[in-house]
Specification:
single chain; 262 residues; alpha/beta; Jelly Rolls; Rossmann fold; 2 domains; ten-stranded mixed β-sheet; four-stranded mixed β-sheet; 7 helices; kinase
């Protein structure tokens, strides 16, 4: 593949679809929030990749109930930590995981969401390597709209070079900070649609390569003018597409996927 000059960060969701992703950074962590989890093969893949598995409050109920039809499998998915203000987790579920080795971390601070506190907790576990370790976040984009927006806004609060992937069963979202980014896309598994979303900013001038409808930076993306929704990869017939995005303001990238039960 031809090297793109000036690229600051590279991204890919290959970790969702491959046992051996070459685009993984450091030792990934897995955070489970309180919404529907993906089907078992995706959960299993992320679980095996993650060095640290962390359930956030009601996300612990989700993990437990995900295996209601197969309690034997439940025993294979014991998180390392259960954290948050712990006001949503069912006591018997808490006892189940604690008795099997999970550690309880009560994190109470009304000024921060449980998701924000879980990221701070991960940082405390390995502050030296925190920035270089990827984070996969399940259950972050569905359910209540205010929760979704809160989770999306949290990406503004992590170091700009850190890779945090918000994963829902229908899409994956990342925050591209100011600069030039390369995204490796796999049309066999993701897409066909993708989007560039100017959330939390007034406007952004953006140029792209590798999309069906590229942007040339001459017109700003904004909620008042236009956003690039329902875009697509330029070469969906190819195994890998390289999408280059150069933005002068932070910008969210969203790509379609299907992690639902078959």
């Amino acid at each position: 593949m031809e090297e793109e000059k000036g690229v600051e960060l590279e991204w890919s969701t290959e970790f969702l679809f491959s046992e051996h992703s070459i685009y993984t950074n450091g030792d990934p962590s897995l955070i489970i929030l309180n919404y529907i989890l993906p089907r078992k093969d995706f959960l299993d893949r992320l679980w095996k990749k993650a060095k640290v598995k962390l359930c956030v409050d009601g996300g612990t109920n989700r993990l437990y109930n995900h295996f209601n039809n197969n309690p034997e499998d439940r025993e294979k998915y014991i998180p390392d930590y259960i954290c948050g203000d712990l006001d949503s987790i069912e006591p018997e579920i808490m006892n189940y995981y604690i008795s099997r080795g999970a550690q309880k971390k009560f994190l109470y601070n009304q000024d921060y969401t449980d998701f924000q506190k879980s990221l701070s907790f991960l940082k405390s576990l390995d502050e030296e390597n925190y920035v270089k370790n990827d984070v996969y976040v399940l259950g972050s984009l569905n359910g209540r709209f205010d929760h979704t927006i809160s989770n999306v806004s949290t990406l503004y609060k992590v170091p700009k070079e850190k890779h945090v992937y918000l994963i829902a069963n229908e899409s994956v979202v990342i925050l591209l900070n100011k600069g030039k980014h390369k995204i490796y896309c796999f049309p066999k598994y993701e897409g066909p649609t993708c989007g560039l979303l100017p959330i939390g900013i007034t406007e952004a001038y953006v140029s792209t390569k590798g999309l069906k409808w590229n942007l040339d930076g001459s017109f700003p993306l904004s909620f008042k003018t236009m956003i690039s929704s329902s875009n697509a990869f330029e070469h969906p017939e190819q195994e890998i597409n390289e999408v280059i995005i150069n933005t002068e303001q932070p910008l969210y990238w969203s790509v379609e996927c299907n992690l639902n039960e078959k």
